[in-house]
Design brief:
Number of strands: 0
Helix content: over 70%
Strand content: under 5%
Oligomer: single chain
Length: 71
């Protein structure tokens, strides 16, 4: 019934369903990794992320000023 409503074959619907499932599983793995990384880094909210970014950029600037100048 759905295939007729969509003007598609059952095979097309199944292929699309599989692609959507694979894409969802892919994002679930990414979210899981992000959650684990956040826990390790002690990130609990967006403010923590902003603070980590600022800290990283400060360190990068500090490291650049300590690097010997070429030329």
């Amino acid at each position: 019934a759905l295939a007729k409503q969509e003007n598609r074959t059952m095979s097309e619907l199944m292929r699309e369903a599989l692609r959507r499932y694979q894409r969802e599983r892919h994002w679930e793995k990414i979210r899981s990794y992000g959650t684990m990384a956040a826990e390790i880094a002690g990130v609990k909210n967006e403010e923590d992320v902003v603070n980590l970014i600022h800290e990283f950029r400060r360190e990068q600037r500090r490291d650049q000023t300590k690097a010997p100048q070429e030329g």
